[in-house]
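## tool: complex_structure
## caller: assistant
## args:
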Amino acid sequence: MAKTVTLNTPLDMHLHLRDASMLELVAPLTAQTFSGALVMPNLVPPVTTREDLIAYKQRIIKASKNDAFEPYMTLFFQQYSKAFLEEVQDEIIGIKLYPAGITTNSETGVSSIDSQTLRPTLEAMSDLGIPLCIHGETNGFVMDREKEFMPIYESLAKDFPKLKIIMEHITTKEAVDLLAKYENLYATITVQHLLITLDDVAGGMLKPHLFCKPIAKRYEDREALLQVALSANPKVMFGSDSAPHPKHKKESCGCAAGVFTAPIALQVLTELFDKHDCLENLNAFVSENALKIYDITPPKKEIVLEKKAFQVPENYSNDTEVVVPMYAGETIAWSLVSL
Amino acid sequence: MAKTVTLNTPLDMHLHLRDASMLELVAPLTAQTFSGALVMPNLVPPVTTREDLIAYKQRIIKASKNDAFEPYMTLFFQQYSKAFLEEVQDEIIGIKLYPAGITTNSETGVSSIDSQTLRPTLEAMSDLGIPLCIHGETNGFVMDREKEFMPIYESLAKDFPKLKIIMEHITTKEAVDLLAKYENLYATITVQHLLITLDDVAGGMLKPHLFCKPIAKRYEDREALLQVALSANPKVMFGSDSAPHPKHKKESCGCAAGVFTAPIALQVLTELFDKHDCLENLNAFVSENALKIYDITPPKKEIVLEKKAFQVPENYSNDTEVVVPMYAGETIAWSLVSL
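## result:
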């Protein structure tokens, strides 16, 4: 009999679901295997009002077609009044801050990230217990952007010691090291950053489907991320940053950033933790740590995986969208036991 | 009246012309503006015999449709006997060494590059005055490959002091610095490495048409390359490494490495040298240095450029091939005066 593993209440704490036909395609793929997901607000225009939030959440619930799935909503960071945040806080799990222009649909993000400028909003968030999720990259050289952002994380962590700050999709040893330094710093890590380096993106052929922001870094960075994830470190959570782009936009002259991993993430993570003999720590990474950090109680869901080859589809599609997943056409050693 | 500049006997000392329909398409584009070009031998199978050399040269001459163009042929490095090299030396300008598997069609390259292993061939080349052209990359992390190759250049330069060694398409400050250290080390530099960094390839959208090997590096590397090219340093020559790949192979899941610059190289270089007020040094970079280093007398050709906008075509094509040039659809400040 094949070896099996059971995941309880898996959570994806960083997810792009987009909208309209793309939402219809990708939401069910997450909802079938995850109990909940923290949903990014970088639509066009971004999610910045209570009405937007509620309407988007309803569209997600409708598209996901799964009662045991909770979309945890976020607002796109702007200067918000405390009165507004009080009014909206029951609808959100956090607020996502993007430096302006740093990634897909972030044009209206923050152009100067410093405690002085952002103090009114961050103080209100701190008082109300609303976590701050950050895409931590400067506009410097592509391989240095996250590392250069570390002093900004540090000053925010120091200046707002009661504010929970989540360093999203970390990719460097420097970010891993910073986690231990501030009690109020946490992090999400994607599937791909545990597996690839820049060599996989651009070391052989150029691989658009492995191109994301932050870009995959060096071997020593991947090793640091892997160690902190495999060891059930309570400050890191799985956040796929699964980011669907239409196939023709990925395979073109100017390919958009984002790796689509939602439907394969749990299989790949199980294979990875199994390979490193750390399966007993997988549930901490994909669920328990997030439950504690965000203090949430998602719908219960048991996902059983077995050590049996799973061939990743070449793409996922509906009438209007075609999206290519990571490892398209390749084989993963673990499969979902049919739900 | 528009500002003009005249280039005498321009040379491209590192060029991929491919074969068959691709050769038919790209050879005339180089031949119309260059007096000569050093032609890479990495066909499939590679050029390793006197017969291959002569036949390939004839195909190039036929395809280039220009009497004032000389293809300077190279052999693909293997262990060759001195007798063979004596027999073939009038047909070649140098021998190109590829580490095995390091770039397009290099699978049959050298797996271990050390003076001991290669001594018989390198000694014969040194005795006969045949230059050695090297693609200098290890199989390490993509951003470190050229830097890691420096000790290999050093040991070859020391062990064969009379052998002219050309570090092909250098991309790093380390390679520029090494030039000054050994009398017998020279280098070629491409157009794109004087202009772009990894930020242009993967810092915004992913740009397959700017993806090449060695990959573009950091700003400090580009600055070092620029300084050595602009200053008419006699040890560096222009070598475009212009590498045509069919459009569909560049814009796909696994994009091949190579930037196609042959038809725009002189315009772009003129714009660049003009911008830096170094036009008086352009002829050294695109001709005079190579004439001295290789001791050649190519057909005379005067190329006049004027400061007048040139819109780069979206692609160059014939019945079977479509190739996208660097800066496709964009405007360059300098044009060729019609020939």
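## assistant note: The mean pLDDT of chain A is 96. Residues 50-64 of chain A form the longest helix (15 residues). Handing back to user.
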